[in-house]
Amino acid sequence: ARIIRIAAAQVGAVHRADARPKTLIRLISLLQEAASKGAEVVLFPECTFTTFFPRHFFSAVAELESFFEHGDVTTAENTRAIFEKAKELGVDICIGFAEATDDGEHYNTCVYYHAKSGSILSKYRKIHLPGDFEPFPDPDAVNQLEKRYFKPGNLGFHAFRVPDLTDPTADNGEPIFGMMICNDRRWAEAWRCLGLQGVEVVFTGYNTPGWAPQMWGISADQDPKTARAEAIFHHKLVMQAHSYTNACFSVSAARCGLDDGKYDLVGGSTIVGPDGKIIAETATEEDEVIVADCDLDLCSPGKKRTFDFGRHRRVEHYSILTSQ
Ligand code: CDT
After folding, report:
1. Contact (CB, 8 A) for 231 and 266
2. Catalytic residue set
3. Residue bearing the CA closest to ligand 1, atom 12
4. Which of 87, 90, 104, 198 stands the most exposed, by the fewest C-beta atoms within 10 Å?
5. What is the predicted pLDDT for the residue at 170?
6. How far is 135 from 202, CA to CA, in rounded Å?
7. Tell me, which fold does domain 3-323 have in CATH?
């Protein structure tokens, strides 16, 4: 058996004016809680270190830039403490942040930090950026200005093997992980890119509004409670369905709660098995850790039978997927 204890660290409300050190302390205590529960890997949400700033229009560049991490995220002042704690605890972390590169580009990024080597093993930049470039004219609308603030990711979907989590001599070898960010989870293409590389666990941090009728393209007269329940349903639907069709585990961690007492983000962080069933799920919409023992060998039946891609896929009929 190749069993790994994996945690999702859900993060509740983070307000626009929250001081960075205050949020960082919350993240570190979630990491410590996960470690005390025996977690070997912990997933944190998308843009973990700040409020979900793409909902706001910023005319002041300095304020916008304050939400981005500049330089090496593992050593920068606002972020390094969580990497240091991960190293000290010997727990790997997968964590999302807004990345400003040295050449002035901006991405919605996450990294897989390998505690034992104290290094980033893999980096992913969000490819499916939702929302708009321009804010809605309605001043009360919930915006999602990711197309304004980020460039689409340029690193592709790369699965990677992670040392030190399982016995390296076990059949099937070191675990194969993959990362995506929030909106990517709604796209079958993203999952299949990782699935074709044999991914065994997909990590996905997210910020999903509980009520954003303009962004969803629905009438603002709809019942917000029903719409919110549907947002959570769709989140779980894609995590469960795509875990099943790619015969992999998936872990999702929400940034959730009511930011600034006004902006609602759903919870629903989950760990899903390769059969598509939820094996752990948060019960609150606040800071909360869930853990599950994931036996990666449970991916094998799906990978070898129903979803044996080599035997059953018919690529000659799929060219439309990349031609338009
Ligand atoms: N952060 C992010 O990507 N949020 C999007 C909002 C789109 S609402 C359908 C998401 O997919 O959850």
Report:
1. yes
2. 46, 126, 182
3. 208
4. 104
5. 85
6. 32
7. Nitrilase/N-carbamoyl-D-aminoacid amidohydrolase (3.60.110)
CB within 8 Å of 100: residues ≥ 6 apart = 65, 68, 69, 70, 106
Q: Is 243 touching ligand 1 by the criterion CB < 6 Å?
A: no
239 lines ligand 1 (CB under 6 A): no
Question: Quick one: which atom of ligand 1 is closest to the CA of 207?
Answer: 1
Residue with tokens 């338009």: 324
Report strand pairing: 41-43 vs 92-100: parallel
- Is-above-0.95 flag for pTM? yes
Answer whether 135 contacts ligand 1 (Cβ < 6 A).
no
Q: Which residue type sits at 35? A: A
Q: What is the ipTM of this complex?
A: 0.98
Ligand 1 pocket member 206 (CB < 6 A): yes
